[in-house]
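Exercise 7. Given the encoded structure of a 133-residue chain, write a plausible sequence.
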């Protein structure tokens, strides 16, 4: 398989088995996205959507994910952004950068855990990603 340069969104309840390359599956039910690693290695990448993890934007045609997708746990260790459906490749991180990154992620999650937030309802979450609703 070759590198994927563009992903199209598909809104689903749960992720299909197997996933198709070049598709970014968005599950509002599980608040997460799933896709096959864009390097073409075929590994599934699940990105949970939350303020401390990934944020999804949908402009009616294409999706963007922030932050970048760093597949540190995969053998390929690929690192890229999905911006307006385009896959923008980032440089690979060094081992120490990866460790630092994982530590920061951990801290973000813990900070969020400590902040008592009222969880938005399912419909509020849906409205955020579906502009027409
Ligand atoms: Zn890969």
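Solution.
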């Amino acid at each position: 398989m070759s590198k994927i340069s563009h992903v199209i969104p598909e809104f689903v309840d749960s992720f299909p088995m197997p996933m198709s390359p070049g598709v970014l599956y968005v599950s509002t039910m599980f608040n997460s996205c799933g896709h096959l690693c864009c390097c073409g290695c075929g590994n599934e990448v699940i990105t949970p959507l939350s303020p401390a993890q990934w944020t999804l934007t949908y402009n009616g045609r294409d999706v963007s994910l922030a932050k970048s997708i760093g597949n540190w746990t995969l053998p390929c260790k690929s690192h890229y952004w999905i911006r307006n459906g385009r896959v923008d490749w980032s440089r690979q991180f060094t081992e120490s950068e990866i460790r630092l990154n994982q530590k920061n992620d951990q801290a973000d999650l813990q900070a969020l855990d400590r902040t008592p937030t009222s969880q938005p309802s399912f419909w509020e979450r849906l409205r955020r990603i579906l502009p027409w609703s």
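Remark. The radius of gyration is 15 Å. Students should compare their own answers with the one above.
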